[in-house]
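Contributing new complexes? Match this layout with nicotinamide-adenine-dinucleotide.
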Amino acid sequence: MNIALIGYGKMGHEIEKIAVSRGHNIVSIIDVNNPDDFNSPAFKSADVAIEFSTPDSAIDNYRKCFVEHVPVVAGTTGWLEHMDEVKKACSEGGQTFFYASNYSLGVNIFFVLNKFLARIMNSYPDYDVKIDETHHIHKLDAPSGTAITLAEGVLENIGWKDRWALETAENKEDLVIHSIREGEVPGIHEITYESEVDVISIKHDSKSRKGLALGAVIAAEFTKGKKGFLGMDDMLKF
Ligand SMILES: NC(=O)c1ccc[n+]([C@@H]2O[C@H](COP(=O)([O-])OP(=O)(O)OC[C@H]3O[C@@H](n4cnc5c(N)ncnc54)[C@H](O)[C@@H]3O)[C@@H](O)[C@H]2O)c1
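Output block (do not edit by hand):
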């Protein structure tokens, strides 16, 4: 299939390698210096555009894809306050938009495990719960999109927490997410339940960006020919 890449940084390069190895054609690469290429015949020939840019540029890029009716696989994080607007534009315009806060298979298994554990822990309010995430120093947003998805999984299932908070809790109903930025760490997420007597924790540690890039290309293959708002649950059907 024909793939356009929007954002040609660490993820864009990794996705290119995997897409080519799976027999796809990269027909257009758009980064900060060539936004006019959204109007090019090459971009319009894409079956799917895979977008990994920056929190500030992502929404505008999605809009430009919608204008050309090119389906989007969206990987950028840090723009979720605009999600309703994007969903509305997607449904009203008959567009295709796939979003995942994390494209790795392992992390999506971890999301399921997180919800399962939270459902059990809901009966044991003597345990407090927190989330720690560590990423490389170049990451622009905090907490990570993955940590937000994990927090939502806990909040859906634990009756005694009602919102997430970055770094400090204002009250005991806050689920604290600690964000650490360190070296070149691809991504570590850990959920910890602690009582007076013991600690239970589950952890996902990415070894590289390869799993993320592979997941994004598989999502693009899944997205081709479909309509509407899509996500990992539609694709993986755990
Ligand atoms: N959903 C996931 O699974 C997942 C995985 C990894 C990274 N991410 C997210 O993806 C995004 C990109 O990550 P990265 O590690 O590749 O970052 P990066 O900084 O290496 O690359 C970002 C690229 O976007 C380009 N860019 C800036 N403005 C642009 C614009 N207006 N149009 C097009 N490109 C533009 C930059 O020049 C750069 O090349 C981040 O938000 C990151 O958090 C998501």
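Reviewers usually confirm one structural detail per submission. For this one: The mean pLDDT is 97.
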